[in-house]
């Protein structure tokens, strides 16, 4: 919606029934198949003939990387698709880095960025050796995960070993069934069938407050950026639901430094921990895609869709009117589903797409379906009933 308002004509490649189909901002949608993902993405690109691609989740980024690799094998100097992917995501030599947590942290450290100790863990013996040299608690993270699904904060060595085995294991059948039936997401079917094991990393735990940034960049130069402190999350390791706009020089300089070092293009997110004792900003990971704040237009230098449109079109930047002067922003439907009595729903700017009522319904319906699924599997778990205006 924000991209369309900025001037883009927007198409989407997405599964059938995806919430993207509930908005009038799209010119058309193209079918994405979790069973034949690369072919469906190629078909969508061929049909839409886009000037630019924006990846909206980690799996989409990885699959664009895979398509790029295939295209480069076909022609040494690349093809139209491989050049489009590079124009949209950045330098091809950085693709393996942005998708793998430990190599990314090594590059950041080499650039002088403050990062927690991080290591790739291939076995339980490697994990035991790493724990022996670390201070508990520690964080275990699997590559390619998002929304907190592949993250565990562990307090003891035994807990770490159990979490490592779960994170490394192929997707569980129940989880695959839930994603396929409730979310209409079939992307985990092949990893489950092939028993693909996940890459797991261990990271030093930083005591402090979480923060997040999203940047729009072009050939390694940051065009616009958003920086937030995380106030509330859906759960302990889940996505943010309430954010506060901040200006923190170290976050700004870090994102600019990493964008330049990796030659990034498009939208990229960065997560930080603001250390409790010192206030130092520790970079903890990159999200090689847009994040849930990408649509927030907060004025010159903070309007990412307008900055991208200016770069792609060659026209002067024309930022949209600032959404709000309130520094605290509630994201829909996260905080609404986390706690329908949250005081932030009344005191903060509540970012609800009221102009797209079908999209609002879709956001609430997804929560209801998920609540029903989890209540059936956990009968004793209480489920909040959310009261909403009639739409």
Structural features, described:
The protein has about 400 residues and is of the alpha+beta class. Helices cover about 40% and strands about 20% of the residues. The chain is built from 15 helices and 13 strands. A 7-stranded mixed sheet has the order 11-10-7-8-9-12-13. Strands 3-6-4-5 form a 4-stranded antiparallel sheet, with helices on both faces. It has a two-stranded parallel sheet with strand order 1-2. The radius of gyration is 21 Å and the shape is globular.
Please tell me what the overall shape is.
globular
Using the CA coordinates, give the radius of gyration. 21 Å
Helix-strand sequence? HEEHHHHHEHEEHHHEEEEHEEHEHHEH
Q: Helix count, per DSSP?
A: 15
pLDDT under 50 segments (min length 5)? Answer: 377-391
Strand line-up in the sheet with most strands: 11-10-7-8-9-12-13
The overall pLDDT, averaged over residues, is: 87
User: Which structural class should the secondary elements be placed in?
Assistant: alpha+beta
Number of strands: 13
Q: Percent of residues in helical segments?
A: 25-40%
Q: What is the strand content?
A: 15-25%
**Largest pleated sheet:** 7 strands, mixed
Instruction: Compute the separation of the termini in Å.
Output: 19 Å
Topology:
Layout: H1 2-6, E1 10-14, E2 26-31, H2 37-48, H3 58-74, H4 80-89, H5 95-99, H6 101-110, E3 118-121, H7 124-132, E4 138-142, E5 151-154, H8 157-168, H9 173-181, H10 189-194, E6 200-204, E7 208-218, E8 221-233, E9 240-245, H11 249-262, E10 266-275, E11 281-287, H12 304-313, E12 328-331, H13 334-338, H14 344-347, E13 349-351, H15 357-377
Parallel strand pairs: 1-2, 12-13
Antiparallel strand pairs: 3-6, 4-5, 4-6, 7-8, 7-10, 8-9, 9-12, 10-11
